[in-house]
Amino acid sequence: MMEKQTPLFKAVSAYLARDASRFHMPGHKGFPANRSGERLPFGGAERYDITEVEGADSLYEADGALRALEEAYAKLYGSKRTLLSAGGATLCIQTMLALVAKPGGRVLAGRNLHTSAVSAMALLGLTPVWIYPDGAAGCGMGGRIRPEEVEECLRGDAGVCAVYITSPDYFGVLSDVGEIARICRFYRVPLLVDNAHGAHLKFQTPSLHPIDLGADLCCDSLHKTLPVLTGGALLHIGNPRYIPAAKQKMALFGSTSPSYLILLSIDRCAAYLECGHVAEEFAAVRDRVKELEQLAVQKGFVPLTGPRDYTKLVLSVYNWGLTGAEFGARLREAGIEPEYVSGHWAVLMASPENTGGDYRRVSKFLNAWDLPSVGGEEYYPVPRLEAALSLRDAIFAPSETVPVENSEGRVAASMVCPCPPGIPVVMPGEKINRDAVNLLKTSGNSIVKVIL
């Protein structure tokens, strides 16, 4: 039985079999009802919601069931060591940056990074040296980090302590991780990859997973594409020099009360990945998404260009004369809840857990599309702004919120992005110029936080 093959499930089941009186966290004590008698709507999951009791191991020491689970994932992904996270890819990103941080260190970073990386750099006193994506994937899209630009920057800056890129990005756009890894090895600079959206890329032929492509460190947000509860993630270590300090660095940022429900879902996912069917299941997902994209193109939707992950169906919004809210309303009227909708793009994320009925709804939505295309729209590139303060100094400085139109010449105290997964127009510490003001106003941003 599968229940006997996963180490953490075995350990927790053994604890439950003891029928011990729970004089430990959490306060619900495993009971499915509160004191008023109202039943909790969790299907019995609360029984398994324990803490780091005897026999269930401890996340930041991990010498029992959790260590066995980490070793199973290291084998699955071909890493030198894999660490579990119940704090999402955010915890893994914080750990990666902490492992490479040096006093006054500079990180060559793709500008399309997640906000958690910006916050971690500020806390660690790191200074980003920005590389801007090439914008070639589509209108208003971030695009890819070009290897030749990485090499040019490394050739001219011997003080860089790491290269940090995001691939795939929120829209599934893939950079050439293998070539960037080769360049980083030549310059003896570690490569860190935010692979939060690509945990499944290991299971296609050839593998596109960053560890297989030569990354020193990378994170996988399992819950984004695999059957894992929200918050389940992995930190993969490809370079053994980072193994000794990894747990200690993760403990700096992680909760001392990790969710065992999340950890158990990671445990169950290991059994799913080991069963050997995941590659063909994701191949089927990609085939279905490609079919839907072909239909969308026939209807006038503008496709993305270049290498990308085809578990995401990305539909153009900007060429229909609709707002993002209007496009999202049309999707929901068709019984489809998207991952994300903006005035430029809508993202529909698929996995093997989506049913044939799910795909048929999208096909019906596209077949019924009857709006004429109004063509493209002018897209303004993100301006290259001057850094007046470090990330850390800017984030912790006293600040105020002002209208965007009054922010020219002021220094930003926080990141300002037209939409959450896009490229930030302004980073903390950067001096806002007229081009930035105009782009923010065009993108619908009305206020900005600036330093007093």
TrEMBL record:
Pfam families: OKR_DC_1 (PF01276), OKR_DC_1_C (PF03711). InterPro entries: Orn/Lys/Arg_deCO2ase_major_dom (IPR000310), Orn_Lys_Arg_decarboxylase-I (IPR052357), Prn/Lys/Arg_de-COase_C (IPR008286), Prn/Lys/Arg_de-COase_C_sf (IPR036633), PyrdxlP-dep_Trfase (IPR015424), PyrdxlP-dep_Trfase_major (IPR015421). Residues 390-441 form the Orn/Lys/Arg decarboxylase C-terminal domain. Residues 6-275 form the Orn/Lys/Arg decarboxylases family 1 pyridoxal-P attachment site domain. Its cofactor is pyridoxal 5'-phosphate. Keywords: Aminotransferase, Decarboxylase, Lyase, Pyridoxal phosphate, Transferase. Coiled coil: none annotated. Signal peptide: none annotated. GO terms for molecular function: carboxy-lyase activity; transaminase activity. Belongs to the Orn/Lys/Arg decarboxylase class-I family. This is Aminotransferase class I/II-fold pyridoxal phosphate-dependent enzyme. It comes from Ligaoa zhengdingensis.
